[in-house]
Every structure is written in structure tokens, then in C-alpha cells.
């Protein structure tokens, strides 16, 4: 093939890329490479393979293009390919050290070079990799990229930087400012101002990520569908799968589990070859399996996403379900340690932590988690987060024996979560409400709430939660009263040993007032008039 023919194939490949005809682009660049087309043909081949979701081919072509550009002493071009390789090694292979090495090479190659688009994308990659742990660094690097975009008149660079800065602001709890930036960038992407499909995809995805973090699920669902249509039009299979994974989560939370099953299983199948997005899809599917009561399948899926944050939370929720409260609290703490300076992202772990501590009778620890969650919910203001915060407060109040206050908190949670369209979460809050009502001696009301929760779970297909609601209902009727909490059983065991309230307070590291309250609740639940009668009644039901 003569030089003119090579140039013709390169032009054909570039035209096909601009028109999102990835297979045609790949074929043209392969012909150019075979004819000795050199570094430009290799880079184009890598781009086409990226959009065709062929990670091995993309990495191979880009690495060869990098070597060729370096051999030709084309530093800026080599830096551009190094930046692409940094993303691919992190997303495809899950190798952050190698990814950071490529960023380092790009940084060195761009030293002393004037303002370039490549410098802006280098800053964006550093910013993206900094989240969620270091939102301050993400904001600093996004600002640098945005400034470069404005200087160069590059709307794709400018708006992607604006979107990433918005996501970092949301992570810091600056919701209004962050969402405003994200809205602007997404409008530019969907109005046709932006042309780079990668920039468009990232800008829109950052908005979806932010919506999920603040639990604005209606908004997230709308944008997921919009972006999925755009990805289908542009034939970007991997981006469409990412959107489907996030949309599957929205459907799961809304209680539309049949649709969620389709979206999540198909997304997981497409993304299985990529380390990061594959892990995300497996973790999301694992959470659906957990809610369905298919615990073994859930454990298997999150095992494939071992260190993914969503997998850590799902593992903690599974531990909570089987009564391993320490493991549940440990998972929540591990999740939060991974977040660094992020604020909003702590919410789901705080909810899990409050429930685990509450079930274990650690009222003070539960209340600390609940108060932090309440602060986040107050800043965000969405019903799902406000409902989660009230649920967490109810767990803490019940652990302290304040069942009437807990009842109010759980009633608020049920209302907020139901209004937000989250039936699974509302059902769990109903079960907690029923337990508090029973502790207050309001048995008919408790039975009604247990029944309503059971209907909700059965309708969803949440087998384990439906079974739990039924078992709690029957258990209470068999015993003729409310079940004792973990902490109450600990207090009663010490009462049986003849210990005074002061001695119990010392043993359990509680105040005497809290112990007095627990003893009063124990007497009420067991229908006993004295401490000795309470011990006797408990032994009749279940020996201490």
C-alpha cells in the first residue's frame, strides 16, 4: 500500500470515529497499521477498540502507539496516549499503580509545553481518580482543567471539568452549588454543544453519580434513560451498560424488581470484562439478590467485587441479617474509612452503623451515627435521606429504651420513605415501628404494622424480609408480649445475678438512668411487678 493509500485509510478511520461507526473505524485503522501506517493508525485503532469494548485490543494498540510517538519525539501525542492508558489500566485491569505510572509519564512529557488540551485531560484524570476520598484535590484539578478549556475554546474540556467539580462539591456537602454545575454541564452535553462522546459520557455520568449519592432517584432515573438513549445512538456499548447498571439500581429501589433484574443482569454481562465497571455491576446485582432473600447468590456476586464500596456495604447488610452485628458495624466503618474527606457518601454506612449498634443495644454509638446522618440529611433535604435519618434515630432511641420516641421516629421514616417511593425501605421501617409499638404494649397496632410490612415484602418478592416480619409477629403472640432487645437481655442477665443498677451501669458502661430505663422496659414487656418476677418470667420463656 502506497503512502497515499495509507493516508486515505487514516482519513477513513477518523471519519468513521467522528460518525460513531466504530467497527468501520477499526477496520480502516487495521488496514493502515498493516500497511505501516505508524503511530496515528495505532492510536486510532486503540480508540476504536475502546468504543467497541475490547479492552485487550485497546491496551495493546495504545501501548504500541505510545512507543511509536516517543520514537518520533512527539511528546504531546505520547502524553495523550499515556492519559488514555492511565484510564484503561484503572478501569479495565483494576491496577491503580500502573495507572498512576502512566499519569506520571504524561505529566513529565507535558512539562515545559504551553497550554494544551492534553494538559487539561491530565488534570481531569487526576481529579476523577481523587474522588471520593479527596474532593479538595478533585476541585483544584478540575478548576485547572476548566481554565484551560476556556483558554483554548474547548467546550468539551470545559464542561467535563465543570461537571467533575460539581460532583466534588456534592461530595463535600455543597449540594446547591454542585448540582448547578452538573446541570449546566449536562445541558451542554445534551443540547449538542459538546461533540466528544467520551466528554459527553463522563459529564452525564457525573450527574447520575451525584443524584444517587443524594438519593434523588427520580432525577437519576430520568438521566440514566436519557444517557442510555444517547449511548445507543452513538453505539457506545460500555457506556450504555454503565447507564443500565445505575438505572437498574433506581428500579430496584423503586420496587420494580423485574425491570431491575433485566437491567442489572445484562449490564453485568457486558461489563464483566472490565475490572472497575464490572465490579460495580456485580455489587449492584448482589444487592438486588440480598433484597430478594437470595443470600448465597448475593455473597457470590459481591465476592467478585470484593473491595468495591457497594460490595462492602452489601456484605455488612448480609452480616446484619444473620445477626453478626460486629461484622455489620465493621463493614460500615471500613466503608467510611475509604472515603477520606467525602461527606455525603458516608450516609449509607451511617445508616447501617446505627442499625447494627442499635440491635446490639449500644445506644450511644447508634445515636452518634444517627446524628451525623441527620446532619447530612438536613443539608441534602431529599425524602429518602431524611427518612433514613429518622430510621437511624429510631434504632438508637429503641436501643436506649425510649420506645415512644422511637415510635415517632419510625412513623416519620415510614411516611418519608413511602412518599419517596422506596417500598423495601418503608417496609423495614414498618417492622421497626411494629417492634416499638409492641414494646409499648400496643399489640393490635403492632400486629397491623407487621401485617402491612409482610404484604409489602411479599409483593416485592423479598422472601427473607417477608419471613422475618411473619416470624416477629408470631413470636410476639406466642410470648404474649414484646421481645427483649439485645441490651435488655444483657441487663436482665445481670439482674438475675443480683446486681444493682449501679453495678450494671459499671459493667455495661452505661449511666444509671439508662439502666433504670431498661429495667422499667423489661418489667413492662414481661408483665412483671418486680425484678425477681421478671427473671422468673424470662426463664419460663427462654432460660437466661
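Sequence proposed for the structure above (544 residues):
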Amino acid at each position: 500500500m502506497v503512502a497515499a493509500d495509507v493516508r486515505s485509510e487514516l482519513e477513513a478511520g477518523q471519519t468513521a470515529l467522528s460518525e460513531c461507526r466504530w467497527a468501520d473505524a477499526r477496520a480502516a485503522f487495521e488496514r493502515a497499521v498493516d500497511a505501516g501506517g505508524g503511530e496515528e493508525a495505532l492510536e486510532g485503532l486503540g480508540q476504536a477498540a475502546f468504543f467497541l469494548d475490547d479492552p485487550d485490543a485497546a491496551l495493546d494498540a495504545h501501548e504500541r502507539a505510545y512507543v511509536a510517538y516517543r520514537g518520533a519525539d512527539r511528546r504531546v501525542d505520547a502524553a495523550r496516549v499515556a492519559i488514555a492508558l492511565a484510564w484503561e489500566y484503572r478501569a479495565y485491569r483494576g491496577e491503580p499503580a500502573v495507572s498512576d505510572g502512566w499519569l506520571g509519564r504524561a505529566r513529565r512529557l507535558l512539562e515545559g509545553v504551553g497550554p494544551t488540551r492534553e494538559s487539561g485531560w491530565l488534570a481531569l484524570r487526576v481529579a476523577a481518580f481523587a474522588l471520593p476520598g479527596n474532593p479538595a484535590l478533585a476541585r483544584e484539578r478540575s478548576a485547572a482543567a476548566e481554565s484551560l478549556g476556556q483558554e483554548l475554546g474547548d467546550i468539551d474540556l470545559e464542561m467535563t471539568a465543570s461537571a467533575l467539580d460539581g460532583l466534588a462539591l456534592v461530595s463535600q456537602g455543597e449540594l446547591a452549588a454542585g448540582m448547578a454545575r452538573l446541570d449546566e454541564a449536562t445541558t451542554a452535553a445534551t443540547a449538542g454543544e459538546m461533540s466528544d462522546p467520551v466528554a459527553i459520557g463522563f459529564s452525564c455520568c457525573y450527574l447520575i453519580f451525584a443524584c444517587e449519592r443524594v438519593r434523588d432517584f427520580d432525577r437519576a432515573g430520568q438521566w440514566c434513560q436519557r444517557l442510555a438513549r444517547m449511548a445507543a445512538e452513538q453505539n457506545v456499548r460500555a457506556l450504555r451498560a454503565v447507564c443500565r447498571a445505575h438505572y437498574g439500581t433506581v428500579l430496584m429501589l423503586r420496587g420494580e424488581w423485574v425491570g431491575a433484574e433485566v437491567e442489572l443482569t445484562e449490564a453485568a454481562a457486558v461489563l464483566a470484562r472490565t475490572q472497575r465497571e464490572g465490579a460495580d455491576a456485580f455489587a449492584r446485582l448482589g444487592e438486588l439478590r440480598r433484597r430478594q432473600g437470595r443470600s448465597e447468590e448475593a455473597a457470590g456476586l459481591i465476592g467478585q467485587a470484593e473491595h468495591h464500596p457497594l460490595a462492602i456495604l452489601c456484605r455488612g447488610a448480609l452480616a446484619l441479617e444473620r445477626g453478626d452485628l460486629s461484622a455489620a458495624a465493621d463493614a460500615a466503618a471500613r466503608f467510611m474509612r475509604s472515603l477520606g474527606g467525602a461527606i455525603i457518601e458516608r450516609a449509607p454506612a451511617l445508616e447501617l452503623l446505627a442499625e447494627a449498634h442499635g440491635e446490639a443495644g449500644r445506644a450511644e454509638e447508634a445515636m452518634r451515627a444517627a446524628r451525623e446522618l441527620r446532619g447530612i440529611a438536613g443539608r441534602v433535604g431529599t425524602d429518602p435521606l431524611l427518612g433514613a435519618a429518622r430510621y437511624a434515630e429510631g434504632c438508637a432511641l429503641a436501643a436506649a429504651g425510649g420506645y415512644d420516641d422511637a415510635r415517632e421516629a419510625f412513623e416519620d421514616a415510614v411516611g418519608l420513605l413511602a412518599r419517596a417511593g422506596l417500598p423495601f425501605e418503608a417496609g423495614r421501617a414498618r417492622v421497626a415501628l411494629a417492634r416499638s409499638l409492641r414494646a409499648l404494649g400496643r399489640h393490635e397496632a403492632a400486629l397491623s404494622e407487621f401485617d402491612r410490612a409482610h404484604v409489602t415484602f411479599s409483593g416485592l418478592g423479598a422472601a427473607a424480609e417477608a419471613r422475618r416480619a411473619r416470624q416477629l409477629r408470631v413470636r410476639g403472640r406466642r410470648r404474649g408480649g414484646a421481645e427483649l432487645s439485645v441490651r435488655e437481655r444483657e441487663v436482665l442477665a445481670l439482674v438475675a445475678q443480683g446486681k444493682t443498677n449501679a453495678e450494671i451501669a459499671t459493667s455495661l458502661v452505661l449511666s444509671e438512668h439508662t439502666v433504670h430505663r431498661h429495667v422499667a422496659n423489661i418489667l413492662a414487656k414481661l408483665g412483671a411487678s418486680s425484678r425477681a418476677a421478671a427473671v422468673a418470667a424470662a426463664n419460663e420463656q427462654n432460660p437466661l
